[in-house]
């Protein structure tokens, strides 16, 4: 985010360029996916279903409250470039991005 996006993931110093490389090529929210997976893993390792449930409930709150706000902000800042990225890359499940009709995965307008 700092190297390619000219900023940070923090709202007070947000990236000025749309980052679609690295882990963002496979999932739109790699930090959220990693945080939720970490919470579930800690719960499983510690044998605490309460921690697992807490992590999963946190993912629902993030998905329902934070993600829509974040995506509206990204559309407002990056417009069609973000919309094309959003249409190609999964929000939660890491996978290879869908190819556009031109056969190219990368978008020359974004970094």
Describe the overall structure.
- The protein has 111 residues and is mainly α.
- The protein has one domain (2-88).
- Helix content is 54%, strand content 0%.
- The chain contains four helices and no strands.
- It has helices at 2-5, 30-46, 49-78, 80-88.
- α2 (30-46) runs antiparallel to α3 (49-78).
- The protein is elongated.
- The N and C termini lie close together (10 Å).
- The model is unreliable at 103-111 (pLDDT under 50).
Major β-sheet annotation = none
End-to-end Cα distance, whole Å, is 10 Å
Count every helix, treating DSSP H or I runs of 4 or more residues as helices: 4
Can you give the helix content as a percent range?
A: 40-55%
Q: Spans with pLDDT under 50 lasting ≥5 residues?
A: 103-111
What are the SSEs and their pairings?
Layout: H1 2-5, H2 30-46, H3 49-78, H4 80-88
Short description:
Helices cover 54% and strands 0% of the residues.
Please describe the structure with a list of short key phrases separated by commas or semicolons:
elongated, disordered C terminus, 111 residues
